[in-house]
Amino acid sequence: MNRVLRLQVPIRIAAAASAVGYEEFRGPLGEKFDFHDDSDRFGESTFERAEGEIGHIALNLALKKAGLSHTEIDLLFAGDLQNQCVASSGGLLSFGIPYIGLYGACSTLGEGLFSAALALSGATALSRVAVVTTSHNSAAERQFRLPLEYGGQRTPTAQWTATAGGAFLLDREKQGVLITHVMAGRILDYGIRDPANMGAAMAPAAADSILTYLEKTRTAPEDYDAIVTGDLGREGSALLSELLLKHSVRLNNHSDCGSMLYYEKKQDSHAGGSGCGCSAAVLAAHFLPLLQGGALRRMLLIPTGALMSPSSIAQGGSIAGIAPVVCLEVL
Amino acid sequence: MDQKHYERRVAARAARSPVFKNCIAAFFFGGGICALGQGLSFLYRALGVPHRTAAALVTASLIFLAALLTGLGVFDKLARIAGAGTLVPVTGFANSVVSPALDTKNEGLVLGVGAKIFTVAGPVLLFGTLAGCIYGVIYAVFYGFFL
Prior knowledge:
The complex is a heterodimer of chains A (331) and B (147).
Chain A: E1 4-20, H1 22-26, E2 35-36, H2 47-66, E3 75-79, H3 86-92, E4 99-102, H4 108-122, E5 129-135, H5 137-144, E6 160-161, E7 164-171, E8 177-183, H6 198-217, E9 226-229, H7 233-245, E10 254-256, H8 257-260, E11 273-274, H9 276-293, E12 298-302, E13 305-307, H10 310-314, E14 320-322, E15 325-330
Parallel strand pairs in A: 1-2, 3-4, 3-5, 6-11, 9-10, 9-12
Antiparallel strand pairs in A: 1-7, 1-8, 5-7, 8-15, 12-15, 13-14
Helix pairs in contact in A: 2-3, 6-7
Chain B: H1 3-13, H2 19-46, H3 51-71, H4 75-82, H5 84-87, H6 90-103, H7 109-116, H8 122-146
Helix pairs in contact in B: 2-3, 3-6, 6-7
């Protein structure tokens, strides 16, 4: 099995932008996001439509940063957490860009960068491709958990779906932040049934992807300035290091986007943030500027997804995890 | 690590909810709601309302308060601390009916609110009614045979 794909033509991330809600703006990375809306509604009447608007705003901002018009984008990969990815199709409809909807739960950013990089490196007719992923806490709560105003208590391992989104514009220029390798994740099910412990469901997939990637590329964790997982949260991150230690791999440069998005105590965020907008917004607002500024030269991005639906959980099904890998380098 | 080991490890390391702290909060919040109910009962009776009507009025008042606080977006924040303290009294039931109604109002009055208002409280209504019926049958049989 050829797991790691080295891109013949590295793909550049030309521009990126992020948009977040109120809690994310109050968090440790708050000032870094390009756009925030304190009402979480982004000018829309429902939270579901607001999630679409997050993607719309983020893509518009990314286009503005790159000085491009939406007519100059040839293909769009986008995904979100709503049924049938309706936030992406609704929010990005008005751009009129050829669109491919993706679903990889919270790992969708990885799927998007993977697909966009392969499309660009394989099809020379494409010159620019966009990737957009979003999530909205209130839309996700309604779809996956309980009514918004329901008075209940969350368990310590529960994560908070981020109201956030990110947009990325990719092209074939050779200087800047480049995607050099991509690897699709395997679906791994370790029998976790607790939807309030997604970190535990995703950690085995993240461990498997990291070990496989390092082995196949014959690299060590120290060869990367940062190894960044999507939304394992504090619980999943701890489990990841336990799983890796069994293989004598220790990560001293591991960060997790979900654990970085909120203050633990002040924002009562329990195990941390999650959602496909979480890793997208943190990559766009925090890690890409570090790469562009030279603070990081080479990093692995491993967005993590918990593959489940309200029905699968209600029927007692276990939650599988997935974790694609994207290697970002500055050249 | 194989699946069985992993499941055990996950269960072992997952932090438990702070049961003792939650119990203390539930005791005071739940007790507070009961004390408020008792206070209302005294008030209604002082206003000349008969005993049984006052009891019904107290329940209605607490339901109204919980519904109002749910609508104002305060109840869930309170319940995050109070836990069973707000869940167990009639306030929890009111919240479990009002919150889905609020959630689904943009899906229409019939197929939204009408169809989904009891998604949380449904089991209580169904099994509560069922238990009432069974008790009624037992009651009738015992009274029929022995009295």
